[in-house]
Amino acid sequence: MKTLSVVIPFLNEERTICKTLEEIIAVDLSRLGYEKEIILVNDGSTDDSQSVIQKFLQKSYPDNTIQYIENDKNHGK
Predict the structure, then answer these.
(1) Strands 66-71 and 34-43, how do they pair?
(2) Which one of 13, 25, 59, 67 is least enclosed by Cβ atoms within 10 Å?
(3) Domain annotation covers residue 7
(4) Does residue 42 lie within any of the structural domains?
(5) Residue 77 belongs to some domain of the structure
C-alpha cells in the first residue's frame, strides 16, 4: 500500500485546527490503495494553538500516529 503524507502547517489556528484535523482523518483513502500519514507543523503560533492540539492528540491519538512538529518562530510555508 502506498502512503500519502498530509502536511498541515498552521499559525494561530486554535479555533479551527482540531476541526480541520478531524475532517482529514475522516477521509478514507484505503479504497484507493493509500494509507495516510499526517504531519502537523505549528509555525510559531502565538495563540493557544499548541496546547489545543497537544490536548487533542493526547486524548484522541495517544499512540503517536499523528506527527507534531513545533517551530519556535514563523518560518513560512
Answers:
(1) parallel
(2) 59
(3) yes
(4) yes
(5) no
Chain mean position to CA 15: 14
pTM, full prediction: 0.83
Amino acid letter for position 55: K
Distances 10 to 3, 24, 67 between C-alpha atoms, Å: 22, 14, 14
Tens-digit pLDDT profile for residues 6-38 = 999 999 999 999 999 999 999 999 999 999 999
Q: Which residue segment(s) compose the domain that 49 sits in?
A: 2-71
> In this structure, what is the dihedral angle of CA atoms 13, 75, 60, 32, given to the nearest 10 degrees?
100
Residue 30 covered by a domain:
yes
> What SS3 class is residue 19?
helix
